[in-house]
Amino acid sequence: PAAARQLACLPWRARENERVRRALLWVAILLSLSLLLFWAWRSSIERTDSRYDAQIRMASQRYGVDPLLIRSVIWEETRFRPNKVGHVGELGLMQVRPTTALDWARSEKRMDFRPEQLADPEIGILAGSWYLARALRHWQNTDNPYVFALAEYNAGRRNAVRWVDPANPRSGRAFLSRIDFPKTREYVCQILDRFALYRGRMPWTSSCASLFSRSGGMGKKRAGADVAAGPRGSGRAAARPETVAK
Known about the structure:
Blueprint: H1 2-49, H2 53-63, H3 67-78, H4 98-107, H5 121-138, H6 145-155, H7 157-162, H8 172-178, H9 182-198, H10 207-211
Helix pairs in contact: 2-3, 2-5, 3-9, 4-5, 5-6, 6-9
């Protein structure tokens, strides 16, 4: 009887094994397609987002800023459109205010500089990278200068100083949780996500994701704090909530 039962089970086991093989085959096919789509997507990003890499490398070498961070800021600010003009007069790929650009020109002894030259990709990237480098130097003794510097780039030094946690002044996590302009928080996280992507990582490995879960509470919106005085592109959040030096 036992042998008979085993013989009776053979067709069922064969069918079950065939189902398992087919399921594994489909899993392998889906994984392969996913990888192909991912690499095609990455290739398209490189094609569209690398058009100003020569100017970015020049600014990176001059001011000591990671070129992929510069590229990430450009992506967030203008999606690589050099002629974009912000709502309060920001110009160029990195959306630099004319007053800040004049500070950059004085520091570089460019006496013939005119703000409209920010539409030139090379000039716009140099001026924005100079400002970003200055912010990174100011916050270099924190545990994550990128978080502090990007918030300053978006909302100005005065606001960034206000968001420092007196009990933990070097903590990027504490700083991020105290930002009471939701669009500035989103701005910082969007850039850090893109920075992670450019470095070959996935966005959930970015500094922002590791510092603080955006699904959790990140501070309450203060009345009047989210008045956008700056550009806001398709699908992104960028704000200059007050009149700032940038």
